[in-house]
Amino acid sequence: MDGLRGLAALYVVLFHSWLYTFPGFPNSSAPAWLDGLKFGRLAVVFFLVLSGFSLAISPARHDWRSGGVGEFLRRRAWRILPPYWAALTLSLIISWLVVSASHYGRPTGASILVYGLVAQDMFTAPTPNGAFWSIGVEAELYLLFPLFLLVRRRLSATVLIACVTLPVIAHGLMVADASPAEGNNWLAPHLAPVFVAGVIGAGVVVASERVQRLPWGWFAGLAAMPVLALGLIHGSVWTVNHYAWVDLAIAPAMTMLLAAVATGRPAILVRLLTASPIQSLGSFSYSLYLIHLPIVMTVIRRVAPHFVSPGLPTFWFTLVLALPVSVLGAWLFSQIFEMPFKQNRSWKSLIAQCRSRRSGRTTKGGKRLCEETAQN
């Protein structure tokens, strides 16, 4: 699962490098052979399916119980908020001093309040980081997760899917423009079905051996084929303009892919995802998602104009410079703001770890000093 997260995060970096190099999205001025980088929204949809799947594995093993609503929300906040707030601070500084991240101007006091409270899906304010829209959506889905488990436990998976999917379908049939653009508010209700698809898919992990041995990888491919066929027939612009339906259509395929990987198939994909570089990338994929966009925009709008011409030269320049800086910067960022909160479950544990490391460094320093004194 970490490997999948890492690859999805890397794709989002490529998407934003493409997006901010070539204006006019989705009718971009980019060469047609780069159209495969146009679907950043679907990478975020995959993140949400994967999030629902991962979070639901433990409840699925315990009769769909979360172990306490308060404790679940505390763990989520502990895991998500510290690196998010650190990235928010970094993004605000870059947006104020280097390059604005919003068409509405530089961040304001309202931006600090809205984004600090992770309320960007409910309230509008100039964004300090265009990638943060999905964090607001995910935070709302975390609040609903215990309710999703309750419906799954008390009623059924079918009822849960119907509860979150039918309103989206009804809205799509009644509203002429039912494909909300990336970054708009109130996307959580629309994206709840893809998160729930992941929650339901986690049931495969605790299903009978016969169910686990089903060819979920092949099922995923078959489920994706109609969506891919429509995209090829109508083109990438049509796909982007119909995300409201594409999200719903592709979520089952994504869920079955996760079920396949979770049950160890296909073996070649599992070997790829468990390779050390991919696993390492996945371990700090959240940090990469959080901080890459200010780096990419700085390179495209502040650095590249001094060295290369607009268009394809800027795109290649961005990949050569912004991609490694984003990955290395994200790794360093994760070591400071993410990993300590992944490795410890409370302030007490975190402080104890810091003291232990500091004590270890002191002990090693004292040992070296004694050795040098003895040699002298």
Low-confidence parts lasting 5 or more residues at pLDDT below 50? 372-376
* H-E order: HHHHHHHHHHHHHHHHH
Structural class: mainly alpha
The fraction of residues assigned to DSSP E strands is under 5%
Overall morphology? globular
- The overall pLDDT average reads 89
Euclidean distance between termini CA atoms: 54 Å
Helix content: over 70%
The biggest sheet, with number of strands, parallel, antiparallel or mixed sense and barrel status, is: none
Number of helical regions: 17
- Total number of beta strands: 0
**Rounded Rg:** 22 Å
Can you put this structure into words, describing what you see?
The protein is mostly helical and 376 residues long. It contains 17 helices and no strands.
Protein traits:
mainly alpha, single chain, disordered C terminus, about 75% helix, 17 helices, about 375 residues
Summary of the model, kept short:
About 75% of the residues lie in helices and about 0% in strands.
Question: Topology, please?
Answer:
Layout: H1 2-21, H2 40-61, H3 69-97, H4 109-116, H5 133-154, H6 157-174, H7 188-201, H8 209-212, H9 216-234, H10 236-241, H11 243-262, H12 267-273, H13 276-283, H14 285-303, H15 312-337, H16 339-343, H17 347-375
